[in-house]
Protein 1
Amino acid sequence: MAKKKVVFKFPPHLIDQPIIYRLVAENGLKVNILRARITPKEWGNMVVELNGDKAKVEAGLRFLADLGVEVEQLAEEVRWREERCIHCTACLTSCPPRALYVDRATMLVGFDREKCIACELCLNVCPYRAVEIAAAP
Amino acid sequence: MSKTIQEINEKIKQGRAVVCTAEEIIQVVKKKGLKQAAATVDVVTTGTFAPMCSSGAYFNVGHAIPRIKLGGGKVTLNEVPAYAGFAAVDILMGATAIPDDDPRNKVFPGKFAYGGGHVIEDLVAGKDVRLTAATYGTDCYPRKTLDTWIRLADMNEAVLFNMRNAYQNYNVAVNLSNRVIYTYMGILQPRMRNANYCTAGQLSPLLNDPYYRTIGVGTRIFLGGGQGFVVSHGTQHNPGVRRSALGLPQVPAGTLAVTGDLKTMSQQWLRGASFTGYGVTLTLGLGLPIPILDEETLAFTAVTDADITAPVVDYSEAYPNGKPEILGEVTVAQLKTGEITINGKKVITAGLSSYARAREVALILKSWIEAGTFLLTEPVAPLPAFDSGYRFKPLKERPWEVLREVI
């Protein structure tokens, strides 16, 4: 099984088509939409996590490319700089997927990179700039 | 049975003192009961690590040759203005000072990336900081400008001096309006979608000695990773507020003014902080030792998060307009579950005060006392007490035009 975070860019003429449905139904992929911005007559932008075996993921990406959807690697990711974190928990309520979490026994904050959807809501909330945006590896 | 501070210090010197943190003491009292715990335990240590805006540091930077009179001139450290209205080379850096060219909130919300709190952190970290000065010349101080690197080790005195720290209890901030607001209590989402609190709860210094029975002028404390002292009560000290049956204030109450040698402190316990849309401050570690003089002092230190209530305040309307109304009260125990209920609505919570670090402060202070490197002090004078009549007043505004007519 392969798990992959990518960005889909939909050209305006594809906006009214059920592309994600076809990706799921016809290509057998699990698609987790992390962020999406779809507006009529504009380029749509969607951050997704694709889950399926390697061949299926590749076939799915080919299917999208043939339709004219641009697929890009997630260019940026949120990094948690533990040495800057003071474990105040201010970020917790600004992290919808709960990638930033606190262990209630120790009251220490942690970061689960897998859960992060790079929404960047936490960036302005941390007074110590312990979360930052960086180029994805 | 009662003990004196002198007797406790003798035990500390002999390495026999029994020390617990304000968190550990809760279990000790549960297990042994008040009486036996009070007989066994000598000191309870507290701690907090949170943004404290009324912090600052003064420095004597040494005399340049030829001499320059910074007093009355304009001085900056890393472009952050320092106050120089003193003798020739004494300057003061406040935690919330920001560079003159910082855009502030002109592009809202401002980032406030660097300010006085960060300057103090950089100095404590041993970094070189740029000192500039522009002033007037005199016969004895002929030089008018200065632009030099300077570091903490090269200064004469470098002293943290905070006029208000360690607030006894604090508000829980929410936002009832329809837009996001940016406050010193963090970013508050509209229609009460989150609640931010700021207290170390059961570890908080002044909540463990709510009537200031052992704390006073001259009390030796943990400050910024070094040892400091209580100067007096802090600004806005307000001891006479309503209290629970346990004596715990139910709204912000007492405060402390504290001081300590910056050269003994560490970056781990002094951190510059940037609050989006609000400004810059200093986050500081502070811990008080509480000598267990009798059962009553011990009983106060056994306070738990479930005993402490904090008022929920709307920061979109009530706070900015100085209205006293509160939306309700919640306990620190509830706040620490991550969710509270206000007027029937479930609201997620986040803290600004680090409980994990507060615990560490209390543990470090405990280790110092156990090692005999930290002795307790008798207060030289008490803090204004609950029944002293001392209170915190709003500004009585008298517009100057009116005053002129009177003259």
Note: Residues 1-168+202-302+356-407 of chain B form one domain.
Protein 2
Amino acid sequence: MNKLALELEGDTHVVVTRRFAAKPESVFRAHTEPDLMQKWLLGPEGWTMPVCLSEARPGGRIRCEWSDGKGGGFHLTGEYIAVEPYSRTVHVERMHLPDPTPDNHVETLFEADGDGTLLTLRMTLPDAETRSAMLATGMEDGMEASYARMEEMMAKGELTI
Amino acid sequence: MKNLDTAFSALADPTRRAILARLALGEATVMELAEPFEMSQPAVSRHLKVLEGAGLIIRRVDGTKRPCRLAPEAVGEIDQWLNRLREAMARNYDRLDRVLAEIEKPTGDQQP
């Protein structure tokens, strides 16, 4: 029921939807307040976000720095374009790997859905090639998480090869 | 990875996605594909060449015809790729579920 859906739309969009058992205000805050963002916006297991800046107002800056705890990491910068508490934000973001990726324009909707919230992220990339590259980066993150889990299981002796 | 890049570029075109959707129903010739799309056969052939180059379709020779069908392994690979991305995002949101439960937990101050 709370399963994430990720679909490609047209040539340049990626649309992600997910339902949460919490009111829109809480989901909105968890997406815009740094101390809350640092608790979950982490990607693979073992990664942390030591630096998080989120000025949730039009023109406000965004900066997130992730670390794998082993000297590796990357950061993201962005700017808010529109902020409508607690229903909608629009921002642009780019990853620095370390060269900046093309801007990803993201509209985030927080809609009341029964006693929960339906979250919709609509990402717009400059072109189809950039979208492919972004999806490929996401896949690498996912694979990294899988490898990290595998390492953990091997360390615990739950998996032997 | 390069194959996936080519596959995604091939999928970026709405006509090519429509052709794939048609081929999901079964094998078809260039003539059969050109008809519903109101396109010339050379135009359809150009799209088919891109799809074939990306490994998304397979063509066989049948006399003078070259019927096309979906390459199941290629489509499966793209789907598997998107699934990995879904999993990576799903993990973040599972964590968010716990953060939200914490935010909305009654503080206890309001209890009698």
Note: Residues 142-151 of chain A have pLDDT under 50 and may be disordered.
